[in-house]
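The data layer described in this paper is built around a simple, fixed record for each protein. Such a record has a labelled line for the sequence and another for the backbone structure tokens. For reference, a complete record is included directly beneath this paragraph.
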Amino acid sequence: MKVLANPCCEKCHHTASTPCSDYVQCRAEGPLCHDDVSCKQQRQKLMSLILEPDRKNKQVLVCNGTGCFSSGSQTLIDLLREGLAERGIHTADVRSTGCHGFCEQGPTVIIEPDKTFYTKVKAEDISEIIEKDIIRDEKVERLLYEDPVSGKLAANFETVNLFAKQKRIILDNCGKIDPEEISHYLAKDGYKGLAKAIQTMSPDEVVEEVKKSGLRGRGGAGFPTGLKWSLCRQSEGTKKYVICNADEGDPGAFMDRGVLEGDPHAVIEGMLIGAYAIGADEGYIYCRAEYPLAIDRLKTAIAQAEENGLLGNNILNSGFNFKLKIKAGAGAFVCGEETALIVSIEGKRGMPTVRPPYPAVKGLWGKPTNINNVETWANVPYILRNGTDWYTQFGTEKSKGTKIFALTGKVNNTGLVEVPMGITLRDIIFDIGGGIKDGNQFKAVQIGGPSGGCLPEEMLDIEVDYDNLTAAGAMVGSGGLVILDNTTCMVDIARFFLSFTQKESCGKCTPCREGTKRLLEILVRITKGEGQAEDLNTLENLAKVIKRTSLCGLGQTAPNPLLATLRYFRHEYEAHIFEKRCPAHACTALMEYTVDNEKCKRCGQCSKVCPVGCITGDKETPYVIDTQKCIKCGACLKKCKFNAISLA
């Protein structure tokens, strides 16, 4: 369905064949510039699509991102629409949206205008929601979010800790609009940034605008986006490409997926603006195949943009041409590295190439190419639409804007959060995240994914930006934020992340292929209680060599979790090596279960649940655990009601 026809109004004095830069507002106000019937019909259709949902008394926003979708949110949407139709209710609009952000509470439903936030909604709850909330304007209290610390029910989603301290720019549309309806994006000023760029600015002016904004790449090290664009623009050649890196592979990370599923047009608009500025006429979105919902919504958005003259030839009658394709990646973590991604698009095995030349000079099929990640592209429309003065009010001196994090781990509130650069880790974890689960103590935060670092409690008040985190031994990365508590072994954490990067190494360069394997072997020995005194120096020296000599970013950053844990948690390594003890009681080989006979009531429950029969005793004979047979499963520890099982 086309929603971007050319009828204009007297306000801008443009003809029906030449749209103005403020085209959405232009079509929403004033009389038509002529009486053409088709012009009137198209105006009516456009305004109906954009304004009709807002005329409803209530809007029911159902999260239909991957997390909620897998829990049956589409069924909820169908039942809501059927239930309203059966009751003859036409004053509520049921909308399928992207991720609301509070994934562990899904499926979630927000009802406007009161912003009522319902959590863990099931099919059997729908009738009650319709009868109480939509018809009688009463809250279904049992479905409201309950704060795990205070026990209070949230009056609306804005009072939930996870949302209260966020600054949602990139995620603002996610959870509000239907990502499969271009009219919803238009109603939120979508494509105004594109219209402003191609109709009122030169390509060089667009590049300068992005430079002035201070936007830095959101996919890793934070390279200045405007500078990256200018390098590609200045490269010789008439054929150039832009690429969106949506190959999100960090464990526990789903920032890019949330944006693609909830607001795909923002990414497309950002790429269009970048292509115009750089001089590209073709682009690719490289999205991992494990994101089928994101790919489906991207396909829909691209088709709608093409149908409405926003992709293809002569975009908005400007003479600017741009075509966009999707490339589904096979799930190789190394393809997040831009040169590996490029060769993967070309149909080859995803392996990095030597730089220089950089992609800005010689990229896809040997042509100048600019690559940014999903979040970077999604920032661009807001910068063009609102200006650099607006954008630079958020963030720090050297890190402007906001950043999306995937907050996971041992924290009460997990999900997608968008915060201004400069916020402290303490605010993210204890205010937005709601503190540590189960009353445990905070130990560390792993920030930046498997290539990031683990920061201890004394670093909680550090301001989150690119330079501060790098100096502290971590990195912003793409935005993974894993919270660790006192039950976590830091040696084992380093082993876990190094195991991931070692498996994902493409094997092209020796330092990464062989070096990470040697590091992993030493860490495995230490967690088994077989570590030696010289291992600490070996780990540090080898890690530094790998960082200096690896071909690409995977190998250059793979030792980061190891080096950070050695820097801040060296005492845990020493306990494993010299005392043959895991302070967190997490390394199985160093555990030993014993029975405290002063506390033991001789109930026999521990022996009944032991899967290998290593616990013996009776009412007359003290219970003992055969440590040679014990597989250290912890079943006896969990079963004992008298705390008679101890773990050394």
